[in-house]
Design a protein that fits this description.
Helix content: 40-55%
CATH class: Alpha Beta
CATH superfamily: P-loop containing nucleotide triphosphate hydrolases
Structural class: alpha/beta
Number of strands: 5
CATH architecture: 3-Layer(aba) Sandwich
Protein name: ATP-binding protein
Number of helices: 7
Strand content: 5-15%
Pfam families: AAA_28
CATH topology: Rossmann fold
Number of domains: 1
Shape: globular
Radius of gyration: 16 Å
Keywords: ATP-binding, Nucleotide-binding
Organism: Salinimicrobium oceani
GO molecular function: ATP binding
Distance between the termini: 32 Å
Length: 192
C-alpha cells in the first residue's frame, strides 16, 4: 500500500496545500487561486468518497476508509501535478487525513498512512483560520470544536517543521494575502 501512497516529484512545480479544519474555505480558495494563476488544483477526494458513502449508507468516515481515501487523494494529486503550470494548489493532502485520524480515532494513525504523509513535500501550507461561518452539511460534525481542531492542524505543522502561513479574514482578504505570499514565493523573496 505504501507505494500507492507515494507522492511523485514533478518538474519545477510549486506545491501549495490548503490545510485546516472543516468549513474554513479551503476548496473555494483553492479554486480561486488556480483560476488566478491559470493552473491546476486538486480537489478533496475525501469529500467525494464520504459523500457517496453517506448517500448510500448514511455512515460517516470509519478507520477502514482512510487508506482508500489517501490512495484516491494522492492519485489525484499526482495526476494534476503532471499537467500543472508552475503552481499546484492542493485542497488538502495526506497529512490532513493524519490530523483527522488522530482527532477521531483516539490518536491512532495507520503507519502505512503516516509514513507517506510525512514524506510528501510541499513548498507551502496555507492554514485556514476558523473566523468564517461554519456551514452545516452531511459530513461536517464539529461546529463547537473549531478552536481545538485548528490547534491540532497548527500543532501538526509546527511539530513537523513545515512551512506555513495562516490565512484569515474574509474570502477576499484571504485571497489577497495568499496572492501576495505566492508572488513573493515565486520570486524567491521570502524564505519559508
Amino acid at each position: 500500500m505504501e507505494g500507492e501512497l507515494e507522492q511523485r516529484r514533478t518538474r519545477n512545480v510549486i506545491k501549495i496545500v490548503l490545510f485546516g479544519p472543516e468549513s474554513t474555505g479551503k476548496t473555494t480558495l483553492a479554486k480561486m487561486l488556480a483560476e488566478h494563476y491559470e493552473t491546476e488544483w486538486v480537489p478533496e477526494y475525501m469529500r467525494e468518497y464520504l459523500q457517496k458513502k453517506w448517500n448510500k449508507e448514511q455512515k460517516i468516515c470509519e478507520p477502514h476508509d482512510l487508506l482508500p481515501i489517501a490512495k484516491g487523494q494522492i492519485l489525484l494529486e499526482n495526476k494534476k501535478a503532471a499537467t500543472a503550470s508552475e503552481l499546484l494548489f492542493c485542497d488538502t493532502n495526506l497529512l490532513e487525513l493524519v490530523v483527522y485520524s488522530r482527532a477521531y480515532y483516539n490518536e491512532f494513525v495507520d503507519p502505512s498512512l503516516l509514513k507517506p504523509a510525512l514524506k510528501a513535500k510541499y513548498d507551502l501550507y496555507f492554514l485556514t483560520y476558523i473566523d468564517v461561518p461554519w456551514v452545516e452539511d452531511d459530513l461536517r460534525d464539529r461546529p463547537l470544536q473549531r478552536d481545538l481542531m485548528f490547534a491540532r492542524f497548527e500543532n501538526t505543522l509546527i511539530q513537523n517543521d513545515l512551512p506555513y502561513r495562516v490565512l484569515q479574514g474574509s474570502l477576499q482578504q484571504r485571497f489577497d494575502a495568499a496572492v501576495q505570499i505566492i508572488d513573493q514565493l515565486k520570486n524567491k523573496e521570502i524564505g519559508l
